[in-house]
């Protein structure tokens, strides 16, 4: 190695150490930056030609070090696993939140729930059976039946409101997904151009990968890296981002919960109209729109019809205070409108029209009946094995079990996601202890390279200024 080539080797060593210090400083500066991946200088030895030197007297070892390549430290398998796990966690969380909202709508257990209102109705009929001639007892029956109907309608209204709010949430999510997908496509184009121009793209790639992870959370997207540094994004096998081109999505289907059966809400591409199979938060919210909330609405509607049928049947089997046959207590849909939880309504009866008696008085129309057997029969409906109480308890218990299972799944998935995040952080996260060690290493390397330059300078000074001066 000649002295002049040694200067080149020393200068590359200085450059390599300086490059390492610069990258270490960048890592330390971004230790708390979300989505930042630590960077490393790829040091590679230069030299090693297969063509021998013409006048070489020894094997060449010069060339120095190449420090031009700086790479992000990432594990592709962990990144793909993270996309999968955050998608699953977001879906389960959305489903659990939907069930929690249904629980809030039913307000069980509590004094304002339908179960408590039913208990008040049974108590009112029981008190009426003991005092069938008391107008206050008759009025109490009608009041508590009216409160029950109001409670059922309020629960149905809360479920309808939850459905509308969930659909609005999906609409907002769609807008966010379209914005993020367009940004990913734009960053893909910038990364491709920068790569062709030989410019650094690590920070751009970090921003893009953070957006891809955001899409995984929102809609269950997965990123597919390409050789040119570009990442394609797919959702359930449908392309969302291809290179620098993105495809929008929109929410299709009914905007009313009553139309779910024939035109269920769904996500489709725009343009194209291809139905997506999303994951993440979108999947959980669509499950709430198409299954969870409509399912419990249907159960509540069936319960409301059972309330109307049960009370009407039992009440019409008795006689009121004037000896007339009992009338239906609730509107039974005879006018062509089916009974639902939304329209369950107590008919406008007077206290005297409450059919507390089982038998008609002998002098009907003149002497009121003191018989309270029909009121007692109505009170005993609470003990029926397949009666209103049993049906409603079954509904509430099923809801509680389903909500508890959903919450447990979220807790388990949270542990899995945290483990994957920790594994990703251990690979791509910045460790200050490691960076301090690297900083000292590059600092000493820089000092040694500088000392090497000084040594070569002294050798050249001797060669140039002192050679041939012996004996002068």
TrEMBL record:
GO molecular function term, any single one: structural molecule activity
Ranges where the Flagellar hook-associated protein FlgK helical domain occurs: 100-330
Domain Flagellar basal-body/hook protein C-terminal: from-to ranges: 427-465
Biological processes annotated in GO: bacterial-type flagellum assembly
Cellular location(s): Bacterial flagellum; Secreted
Family: Belongs to the flagella basal body rod proteins family.
Protein name: Flagellar hook-associated protein 1
Source organism: Geodermatophilus saharensis
Gene: flgK
